[in-house]
Write a structure and sequence with these properties.
- The structure holds two protein chains of two kinds.
- Chain A has nine helices and ten strands.
- Chain A is of the alpha/beta class.
- Chain A folds into two domains: about 25-50 and about 70-80 and about 155-240, Rossmann fold (3-Layer(aba) Sandwich); about 90-155, no CATH class.
- In chain A, the strands form two sheets. A six-stranded mixed β-sheet of chain A has the order 6-7-8-3-9-10, sandwiched between helices. Chain A has a four-stranded antiparallel β-sheet with strand order 2-1-4-5, with helices on one face.
- In chain A, strand 7, helix 6 and strand 8 form a beta-alpha-beta unit.
- Chain A is globular.
- Chain B has one domain (about 5-215): MetI-like (MetI-like fold), CATH 1.10.3720.10.
- In chain B, helix 2 packs antiparallel against helix 8 (about 170-180), helix 5 packs across helix 7 (about 130-160) and helix 6 runs antiparallel to helix 7.
- Helices cover about 80% and strands about 0% of the residues of chain B.
- Chain B is built from nine helices and no strands.
- By secondary structure, chain B is mainly alpha-helical.
- Chain B is flat.
- The chains are: A alpha/beta, B mainly alpha.
- The interface of A and B includes residues 74 and 90 of A.
- Chain A: GO terms for molecular function: ABC-type amino acid transporter activity; ATP binding; ATP hydrolysis activity.
- Chain A: This is Amino acid ABC transporter ATPase.
- Chain A: Keywords: ATP-binding, Nucleotide-binding, Transport.
- Chain A: InterPro entries: AAA+_ATPase, ABC_ATPase_HisP-typ, ABC_transporter-like_ATP-bd, ABC_transporter-like_CS, MetN_ABC_transporter-like, P-loop_NTPase.
- Chain A: Belongs to the ABC transporter superfamily.
Chain lengths: ~240, ~220
């Protein structure tokens, strides 16, 4: 479903992604970890072309993402994204946040979009906040709204860019619970996170990336028990013993 | 003591000036807002030649005195067989001049909306224009209102420069009355009061709008 072939990306002299080869299948939950600055967020953001690649081949959902002729807006309908800082629209209510893209992009009627929005708000557990503004919600609630906003487009892939890194510790659980439920329903998910518990519980694969290169691509248990790569071992001991 | 007979005897002249100042300000305000918004979008659009046009316009126009722009339009254009009345030339000059400042205010407002807002909108499939219209501009306008209000107040006051081309606005009528009656002080006090009748409500209105928009956040 997602296929990186010999993908490179440069920021001037900086080689952010170095020969990435990666295939993610439908229904898989893949967690990407790595030190900060390793290129993990960039890798994720290439998938929906928030970042462009400089070299190689990247195919998502049968679409060659880096092809100039691709209708990028059409393509992005099928790929939801959740950000570290939620990026909810502060001037719109929770409901309006979720309804905007279905109405403007999918041309749904307001009523229909509202129904869908309420369905997903129920799903993330905060239907009572439908008419609140983002500033009236806690961080955990805002992130759940952001997930509902992504799901309302009924995407085939969901991308998560450090979804719990900006949250207070007591709110991380509620967001991870929503993500776990989503994983169990068979959503294809690519998650950049440091939440090891989550990775162990629901990830099918863990990708360890450093200095723009994929150093490990294994199943979670194996990764925790004995990472093959030295840098992965050091990284793992750091985040587990902090 | 202020001589109120000056006001009552010349009231229709003052009123004529007041009306013309309102006209000039209103037309220049609409024009400069539209032109300023276009220039602001030129400056931030991901198209290099547009960026250049926007930058050149803003940097040239805002660094030249309004009076010179006015002279150029009123006395320079006739060289090319384009003759405009003082009123039209004045309104145009005011619009061209103010648009540069408005462009800067709007550009700053758009740039102050966090980058993540555009990313969230685009990643959900909205086009650049849809994201601008539905997500970025509604947030930018709140930030832009105070500086925009300042520019509109400046515009009304700057319209007094138009007296030099006999645009028939307040300052010009004041000059007229004063040169006919040899009264200066009192006449210009009344002229100032008429300006305040326009600018004070504008100023208070902007303050109120600002407060209301702040509440909705």
């Amino acid at each position: 479903m997602i296929k990186f072939e010999k993908v490179h990306k440069h920021y001037g002299d900086f080689h952010v992604l170095n020969n990435i080869n990666l295939e993610i299948n439908k229904g898989e939950v893949v967690v990407i970890i790595g030190p900060s600055g390793s290129g993990k967020s960039t890798l994720l953001r290439c998938i929906n072309r928030l970042e462009t690649i400089t070299e190689g081949h990247l195919e998502v959902n049968g679409v060659v993402v880096n092809d100039k002729k691709v209708n990028i807006n059409e393509f992005r309908k099928n790929v939801g994204m959740v950000f570290q800082h939620f990026n909810l629209y502060p001037n719109k209510t929770v409901l309006e946040n979720i309804m905007l893209a279905p109405v403007k992009v999918l041309n749904k009627s307001k009523d229909e979009a509202k129904k869908t929005a309420m369905y997903y708000l129920e799903k993330v557990g905060i239907p009572e906040k439908a008419n609140s503004y983002p500033s009236q919600l806690s961080g955990g609630q805002q992130q759940r709204v952001a997930i509902a906003r992504g799901l309302a487009m009924n995407p085939e892939i969901m991308l998560f860019d450090e979804p719990t890194s900006a949250l207070d510790p007591e709110m991380i659980g509620e967001v991870l619970d929503v993500m776990k439920a989503l994983a169990r329903e068979g959503m294809t998910m690519v998650v950049v996170t440091h939440e090891m518990g989550f990775a162990r519980e629901v990830a099918d694969r863990i990708i360890f990336i450093d200095k723009g290169q994929i150093l490990e691509d294994t199943d979670p248990t194996e990764f925790y028990n004995e990472p093959k790569d030295e840098r992965a071992r050091v990284f793992l001991s750091r985040i587990l013993n902090h | 003591m202020l001589d109120f007979t000056i006001l009552s005897e010349n009231f229709d002249v003052f009123l004529e000036g007041f009306k013309n100042t309102l006209y000039v300000s209103f037309l220049a305000l609409i024009g400069s807002f539209i032109l300023g918004t276009i220039l602001a979008i030129f400056r931030i659009a991901p198209i290099k030649p547009l960026n250049w046009i926007g930058t050149i316009y803003v940097e040239f126009i805002r660094n030249i005195p309004l009076l010179i722009i006015l002279f150029f339009i009123f006395t320079g254009l006739p060289v090319f067989e384009i003759r405009l009345s003082g009123f039209v030339a004045g309104t145009l000059a005011l619009m061209i001049y103010t648009a540069a400042f408005i462009a800067e205010a709007i550009r700053a407002g758009i740039l102050s909306v966090p980058k993540g807002q555009m990313e969230a909108a685009r990643s959900s499939g909205l086009t650049y224009t849809q994201a601008m219209v539905h997500v970025i501009l509604p947030q930018a306008i709140k930030i832009v209102i105070p500086p925009l209000g300042n520019q509109f107040i400046n515009l009304v006051k700057n319209s007094s420069v138009l007296t030099i081309v006999a645009a028939g606005e307040l300052m010009y009528q004041g000059d007229l009355i004063s040169s006919r009656t040899f009264v200066t002080f009192d006449v210009y006090i009344f002229v100032a009061v008429f300006y305040l009748i326009i600018t004070l409500p504008l100023s208070l209105g902007v303050n109120r709008l600002e407060k209301r928009l702040a509440l909705s956040n």
